[in-house]
Amino acid sequence: MRDVVVVGSVNADLVVGVERRPAPGETVLGSDLATHPGGKGANQAVAAARLGGRVGLVGRVGDDGHGELLRGALTADGVDLAHLATTLGVPTGVALITVGPDGDNSIIVSPGANARLGPDDVEGAGAMIEGASVVSFQLEVPLPAVEAAAGIAARAGGRVVLNLSPPVPVPDELLALCDPLVVNEHEAAFLLGGEGDAGRMAAALIGAGPRSAVVTLGADGVVVADGQGTTAVPSPRAEAVDTTGAGDAFTAALCLRLARGDSLRDAARYAARVGAAAVRRPGAQSSYPAPDELPGA
Q: At 73, which CATH number?
């Protein structure tokens, strides 16, 4: 049995700090290159495990040095890697990240082995997925794998949490399984076809199909929507050093608290504290807190 099983991407994050991002055709100097374990799937698995969760991961890496680095990092945090496969002759996924002086980041992802994750991998991990209280998904891996795993989880009575990142069109049948759908403002606008007030967008997302929705607003907290209405949840104050992976930390904490029986609103309050803690240190997984490192509510 697992609290959370994550079906998603495993990347090496190649990070450079810059004073400003270059305009088209322009070159700027940056900091020394830093390589960190990353990928939205791996990030969520590590964040949940570091908070004390029993976590499994379904994904793919390449047969290269980055793949070895990522396996070692995930193992060190106690993530079950029985269904992390190695794709021969294909590079591990890589994220190219620039971080500005305000801590905000820009990211380009080369999927590599992540793009080879398919329904067959999911079927092979069926027992792990069926035994999870919550199964978490993102969209850095092919949609057929996500759909197959969500179907297995739902049929087994597990809770399906989808982080619509990066935003791509998804079938109504998948949205209908989401409880909740987790999006930021830009992803919500993509799904709804336009921007608006966060509370209204959260309510409108319910009309698009998911059973519940969470709209994340960075330092401004989150808005939760379900059949009981919408609720704004503030985020603790935190001085942002690097926002890379903070959204993954939030989603992981949300999934873990839902797996342990919290209401969606209580889970979101806890997750906001975890997300705030994650921006205070550089990197993604390197910034994720243990429970005793969380800021106050």
A: 3.40.1190.20
